[in-house]
Design brief:
By secondary structure, the protein is α/β, with parallel strands linked by helices. It is built from twelve helices and 16 strands. A seven-stranded mixed beta sheet has the order 2-10-9-6-5-3-4, sandwiched between helices. α3 crosses α6 and α7 packs across α11. The two termini are 25 Å apart. Bound molecules: pyridoxal-5'-phosphate (PLP). Pyridoxal-5'-phosphate binds next to α3 and α4. The site of pyridoxal-5'-phosphate has 14 residues, from α3 and α4.
Length: 385
């Protein structure tokens, strides 16, 4: 047996900028005497990110969830929103907080994104939007989704938590749809410790979002709508400005690790790489595999448990399905028989350790372990005798 790692290997590790550079930013903040409320760091990061991502409009928020929640609010959606069950809980919880009813659509077996061919049959009189997720950085079928939306006069919102800096057909990914949310949580490729943003095209949404994230305060004495507090503070913004300087290096390191994973895993039966896209099309947010029990000889859960003995701790993103949350149990679209592909994939996915500071040797060793844990058909047969 391959010897276990000495210390635990987790799925990710946050990108830290140079400490001295961050401290220099802190000194500026201390001198400015301003900690939040659209300060200098905030203004700079908003501008720098809009430029880096090539966004017409970009607004910062204290986290991605509040960005999405208030983005949906700004669009004034009503009734039902067609979405995916295979996502992080935040996506659908943002619908709940807007009194919107999710209508769960099954997913594509290859990309694990919402299956665009199954959206139209779920549209009703109550449908106001499609909320899709670019899962693990695999872009959705953006043009097909837009066609359906145009035909039925629906809004399209993307949860883009996994697609920082990703392009589709030569355009930044937020070019598609009415609005794209980015998460800058510590575990995301680009982080501001906690943070998020919305990218959008319509001018009138800019002021509305500024109001929504600051209690609806037009000025010190006028409250013009019911908002929330979702402002990014100066320490977060400064962190983002420093991380932005190293994000391309992080991406490149992950690109190298991905090549090692791919070279080894393609030779192991029963392991499919979900995040196989290359170049500008890949966000390098996660490295995700699907375990085919028949060919690999173990279920995903058996593999997950076995890896712990080697001190390797992947994550079962996204398990469980959002449609299985107790408060959706009465929804027709949440019934298991309506989501066969999602049900199968949710039992097979595994996000493997993937971050710039992970060494090449560590990835090679993890691949060796995956190979060692693969159970040959023969063995299974002998064992069963
Ligand atoms: C991380 C994540 C979120 C939540 O973002 P926060 O910034 O942590 O609020 C939403 N959706 C998906 C798919 C995510 O991975």
């Amino acid at each position: 047996m391959i010897t276990p790692f000495e210390s635990p290997i987790f799925v990710t590790r946050p990108v830290f900028p140079d400490l001295a550079d961050y401290t220099a930013q802190l000194t500026e903040i201390w001198d400015s005497k301003q900690l939040t409320n659209n300060g200098l760091q905030h203004k700079r990061l908003e501008g720098e990110l809009a430029e880096y991502l090539a966004a017409t409009h970009l607004k910062l928020f204290s986290n991605g969830t509040l960005a999405l929640l208030l983005g949906l609010k700004a669009l004034g959606l009503k009734g039902e929103v067609i979405t995916t069950p295979f996502t992080f809980p935040a996506t659908v919880q943002c619908l709940d907080w807007n009194q919107l009813t999710p209508v769960f659509c099954d997913i594509d077996p290859v990309t694990l994104n919402i299956d665009a061919d199954k959206i139209e049959s779920l549209i009703s009189e109550q449908t106001s939007a499609i909320l899709a997720v670019h899962v693990f950085g695999n872009p959705c079928e953006v043009e097909k989704i837009q066609k359906i939306a145009d035909k039925h006069h629906l809004r399209v919102i993307y949860d883009g938590a996994h697609v920082f800096g990703t392009e589709v057909m030569g355009k930044p990914i937020h070019h598609y749809g009415d609005m794209t949310m980015y998460s800058f949580h510590a575990t995301k490729l680009f982080n501001t410790v906690e943070g998020g943003a919305l990218a959008f095209k319509e001018d009138h949404l800019a002021q509305k979002l500024d109001l929504l994230k600051n209690f609806g305060l037009l000025d010190a004495e006028q409250v013009v709508l019911s908002g929330l507090n979702a402002k990014m503070n100066e320490l977060q913004a400064a962190m983002g400005r420093e991380v932005l300087k190293v994000v391309d290096v992080e991406r490149e390191k992950r690109h190298e690790l991905k090549k090692i994973y791919e070279a080894h895993l393609n030779a192991i039966p029963g392991l499919r790489i979900v995040t196989s896209l290359e170049g500008a099309a890949s966000s390098y947010q996660y490295f995700v595999i699907e375990v085919d029990q028949d060919q690999y000889g173990r279920t995903r859960d058996e593999l997950f448990d076995a890896l712990a003995d080697y001190n390797v701790f992947p994550r079962k993103y996204f398990y469980p399905l959002c449609s299985d949350f107790s408060w959706y149990s009465r929804l027709e679209s949440a019934q298991p028989e309506n989501l066969p592909v999602a049900r199968k994939s949710v039992q097979q996915v595994l996000s493997m350790p993937f971050y710039g500071e992970l060494s090449r040797e560590a990835v090679e060793k993890i691949c060796g372990i995956l190979k060692e844990l693969h159970v040959e058909k023969k063995e299974v047969l002998n064992y069963r005798k």
